[in-house]
Amino acid sequence: MSAPQASGKPSSLLDARVIYCGDNLEQLRRLPDACVDLIYIDPPFNSNRNYEVFWGETREKRAFDDRHASTQAYIEFMRPRCVELHRVLKPTGSFYYHCDWHASHYVPFVVAPVRRRTANRTFTLRSARAIVTVGSVVNSCRGQAHADERR
Q: What does the buried/exposed string (b/e) look like for 6-22 if buried means 16 or more CB atoms within 10 Å of the residue's CB?
């Protein structure tokens, strides 16, 4: 006997079979409240560098600038995204913010306004750690922020 086949969208709130392309802030604003269980972001690190890679067999050039006018500009770039991420995160969901030493100590400033703006839910930074790789130490903030219900 075979298992029953799922039909339609796996979620009534969001079609998880779709890859949403574009500026994540614009895409997040289109999503309903509390529709996501897990969020992992790997945003720009504020490293003040330009990155480029040649992709696949066609050697397509893909590039992005990781430059901001100032640390404050970086915080102002990330803050509205964190506000929207918090809005779409389910109360039982988890949020992982991946960053390196360029931005790790600014993450609390990025996430702090979310705590102040919401009356019934808050992000709590649960952990931060350094990841050791062969031959080098990469400082990384993998701060697990949960949307906790206030009791």
A: eeeeeeeeeeeeeeeee
Does residue 14 form part of some domain?
no
CA 58 to chain centre: 30
Task: Give the Cα separation of 130 and 107 in Å (integer).
Answer: 15
Over residues 75-118, the pLDDT tens digits come to 999 999 999 998 998 888 888 888 888 888 888 778 776 655 55
Alpha carbon separation from 32 to 10, 23, 52, 92 (Å, rounded): 15, 17, 34, 16
Does any domain span residue 8?
A: no
Q: Is 135 left (phi over 0), alpha (psi -120 to 50) or beta?
A: left
Which of 147, 151, 19 lies closest to 84 in space, CA to CA? 147
For the chain, the domain total comes to 1
Residue 10 falls inside a structural domain: no
Please write the tens of the pLDDT for every residue from 24-71. Answer: 999 999 999 998 888 888 888 888 999 898 988 898 998 888 999 998
